[in-house]
Specification:
Blueprint: H1 2-8, H2 13-20, H3 24-30, H4 38-82, H5 87-101, E1 109-113, H6 116-129, E2 137-144, H7 151-162, E3 173-175, E4 192-197, H8 201-220
Helix pairs in contact: 2-3, 5-6, 5-8
């Protein structure tokens, strides 16, 4: 009988039942007088652990796949809700962005961030809504000194991204803090980009007015 042969070879009751498409109770009844040696029990235990680990890995992969699909679905909902921005909407977004990330305590217009998309959005705001041409922008890279040998590559990256020529880049600001952790994408790290509007003192005062206007709207709703 196949069930007994499989059991004698050290197969588990559960797997035999699955292979023969019968209940575990039936297999146990057919093989109740078969006793496995310690060696076979050990091998069976190893196989069970391997199958259990495979099951856990598969469950983890399925869970990750479900999470990624859910994330993609909700991101699409978010993208569709944003849609196309009018100039007025872009103006308000840029003002709020500067309120959060801009150099408000300086008598100049300066913005710094490491997120390339945020940098591009800010440049879009400053050029479209405030009508500042790119030739009035000065850039400076801020990055840890361990990346000193990569400065040319880093400058080329930001220059290409922003479409601002390298001649408008000042000497990089190198930080001397100790990096206690080396990341896998260390060679693809480009630090932060500081952008300053030349002759922007009056513009800075105006932008501070935008922020006061937004602050007043917040107070009206409290």
């Amino acid at each position: 009988m196949l069930a007994r042969e499989l059991r004698n070879n050290g197969e588990s009751v559960g797997k035999i039942a699955k292979l023969l498409k019968v209940s575990k109770g039936s297999v146990s009844l057919w093989c109740e007088d078969i006793f496995l040696s310690e060696v076979k029990k050990h091998r069976l235990g190893q196989r069970n652990n391997q199958e259990l680990n495979k099951g856990r890995i598969k469950a983890s992969e399925n869970k990750k796949k479900e999470r990624l699909e859910r994330m993609k679905s909700f991101k699409l909902i978010g993208i569709n809700k944003i849609g196309e921005l009018s100039v007025r909407e872009l103006f308000l977004v840029g003002a709020a962005l500067y309120w959060a990330e801009g150099g408000k305590n300086q008598r100049k217009v300066v913005f710094i961030n490491s997120d390339p998309k945020m940098i591009l959005l800010w440049i879009r705001w400053i050029t479209i809504c405030l009508l500042i041409p790119k030739d009035r922008l000065t850039c400076r890279i801020e990055i840890n000194e361990i990346h000193k040998s990569r400065l040319t590559k880093i400058e080329n990256y930001w220059s290409s991204l922003t479409n601002i020529p390298s001649i408008q880049f000042r000497k990089a600001s190198l930080k001397h803090s100790v990096c206690r952790k080396v990341y896998e994408n260390n060679s693809n790290y480009y630090g932060s980009l500081q952008i300053t509007v030349n002759k922007g003192t009056n513009l800075n005062y105006e932008i501070l007015g935008y922020i006061d206007g937004l602050s007043g709207l917040a107070q009206e709703n409290t």
